[in-house]
Design a protein that fits this description.
With about 180 residues, this protein is of the alpha+beta class. The protein has helices at about 15-25, 40-55, 105-120, 135-145, 170-175; strands at about 5, 10-15, 65-70, 75-80, 90-95, 125-130, 145-150, 155-160. The chain is built from 5 helices and 8 strands, in the order ββααβββαβαββα. The chain is globular.
Length: about 180
């Protein structure tokens, strides 16, 4: 599985060994972690990834990705799929950016990269949600091109269908994976 590249970021598919290190908060010598990586959300994502590996096998490429800055290779958060594609070719995504990396557009850029990758793999619909009071995350999803489709007492729901329910072939697709 290869890294996904955006203008300023690398989305690195997490391996089970990397997930174990994130959970243990114990970087290996080769790991380049940002100042507040991993945070609680990164640990949760790593645990969910290992649980998926144990129950259904390694979900890559529909697993977790570390968000790394291209300029220095430092991990600054995580993004990924909440499981394998459904029969209707839909997936759900989630992401978290460490506090020190917020406010620079990294989350929207990472999400656009993951959305382009999903389209390149034939995904017809991508879903996500954000807590009602998490306005920053809601803005990220809108900036990445997702559409607000509703809310309940707890969260706001977003979706992005592929054009005509088919894979995308726009310029973002080629930029998402190298």
């Amino acid at each position: 599985m290869t890294d996904l590249w955006t203008e300023r970021l690398v989305l690195h598919p997490m391996t089970p060994r990397e997930a174990e290190r994130v959970i243990a908060l114990a970087a290996a010598e080769a790991d380049l972690w940002g100042p507040d990586y991993p945070d609680a959300m990164d640990v949760k994502g790593a645990k969910d990834f290992l649980k998926a590996c144990a129950t259904a096998g390694d979900p890559r490429p529909f697993g977790n990705y570390e968000i790394r800055r291209r300029e220095d290779g430092r991990a600054i958060g995580g993004i990924g799929f909440d499981g394998m594609p459904q029969e209707d070719r839909s997936v759900t995504v989630g992401y978290s950016l460490n506090l020190s990396a917020r406010g620079r557009g990294y989350a929207a850029e990472a999400l656009r990269g993951l959305l382009a990758f999903a389209r390149s793999r034939g995904i017809a619909l991508v879903r996500a949600d954000a807590d009602l009071d998490n306005f920053a995350s809601q803005r990220v999803m809108l900036a990445a091109g997702m559409h607000r489709i509703g809310e309940d007492h707890r969260v706001v729901y977003f979706e992005l269908p592929a054009p005509d329910g088919s894979p995308s072939s726009g310029p973002d697709q080629s930029a998402a994976s190298r």
